């Protein structure tokens, strides 16, 4: 479905709550890449990430009545994806290896450069996979999604000092592992 | 001034809390991870320890930055799969019903709504049009998601070759709203009649927003 103009999320959320599925479809189109990307980086493989993104977008629709107007739909969806990723990983207790790029390998890259890049990707993904979930989540939200400390705190229902503390530990761990890889 | 750190010392940067100059290692790594390695303060511009640490951390953190910058598109069909499941939850099973000498034609109410929405989109002055296909008697999840809202008009009420369509639209700021709304009604009725064979059509238009050129 196409819209002539990028109307704001607030407008679309209001219409979706009134029963306009079109409005929610526009929201889902707008935010599905983010939901998938965060799920992929948190839970580690394409199939789980696809399932998780789908579940999160459906859960968001089912719970629109709980959505607070003082938050943004974007932040709220981050919360749902992050919480569901935690639930999935807690149930499974097996994070496996993370594939942060999904199927998005660059076909134009030279083989040698691609191999080098894959090593770097593997090193980062392995290091990220080894982090405790809370640390992984703050790294993904801050350094991969570019959220502010306050936004990360809102998504994780935490405080800015707690986020900074998790990030300090996570960056040290990641830095040490990446140093070893080099 | 003390000697700059050797490679060996650089390798163990993260094992320490501070550099020889007293700078906090975590804050330096945070500076680099936040993409601010080039924004050096007066001390860092003079201090070989800080400069070496920033260079080292930049190299270490480089793959993370590179990976974070790689686009990760949504898998094809993700939104369609989501909407498909939601429509099942809504149980949107209302149909128009036309009987011909060849058999029966059923067209789902949401298809009527989609066509009406797309027709409304083509009317000058319309910035966004949303067609509602859910009926007043929503399934439980839909009722929860919409506060059990019941619009005073039927959303898309369909019976035989009769349809009542409910459209929510936002129009361009400055356009005569009542004229745009009337154009929508005429155009949607014409489109549904020509494309679906519906004969008795009522189009309720709710103009619930006006948008400036920047979409705000």
What report would you give on this structure?
The complex is a heterodimer of chains A (182) and B (216). Chain A is mainly alpha-helical. Chain A has two domains: 1-96, RNA polymerase sigma factor, region 2, helix turn helix motif (Rna Polymerase Sigma Factor, Chain: A); 109-182, Winged helix-like DNA-binding domain superfamily/Winged helix DNA-binding domain (Arc Repressor Mutant, subunit A). Chain A contains eight helices and no strands. Chain A is globular. Residues 94-107 of chain A have low confidence and may be disordered. Chain B has helices at residues 7-11, 25-33, 42-46, 48-69, 78-90, 109-121, 140-145, 177-196; strands spanning 95-100, 103-108, 126-132, 156-159, 162-172, 200-211. In chain B, the strands form two sheets. In chain B, strands 3, 4, 5 and 6 form a four-stranded mixed β-sheet that branches. Chain B has a two-stranded antiparallel ribbon with strand order 1-2. Residues 4-10 and 134-154 of chain B have low confidence and may be disordered. Classes of the chains: A mainly alpha (182), B alpha+beta (216). Chains A and B meet through α1, α2, α3, α5 and α8 of A and α2, α4, α5, α6 and β3 of B.
Provide a quick synopsis of the model.
The complex is a heterodimer of chains A (182) and B (216). By secondary structure, chain A is mainly alpha-helical.
* SSE-based structural type of chain A: mainly alpha
- Pattern of helices and strands of chain A: HHHHHHHH
Average pLDDT reading of chain B: 78
Note the total helix count of chain A.
Answer: 8
Level-1 CATH class name of the largest domain in chain B = Alpha Beta
Oligomer: heterodimer
Give the CA-based shape of chain B. elongated
Q: Specify which chain pair forms the largest interface.
A: A-B, 63 and 64 residues
- The CATH class of the largest domain in chain A is identified as Mainly Alpha
Overall radius of gyration of chain A: 18 Å
Biggest sheet descriptor of chain A: none
- List the uncertain runs of chain A: 94-107
Q: What is the count of β-strands of chain B?
A: 6
What class would the helix/strand composition of chain B place it in? alpha+beta
Helix content of chain A: over 70%
CATH architecture of the largest domain in chain B: 2-Layer Sandwich
CATH topology of the largest domain in chain B: Alpha-Beta Plaits
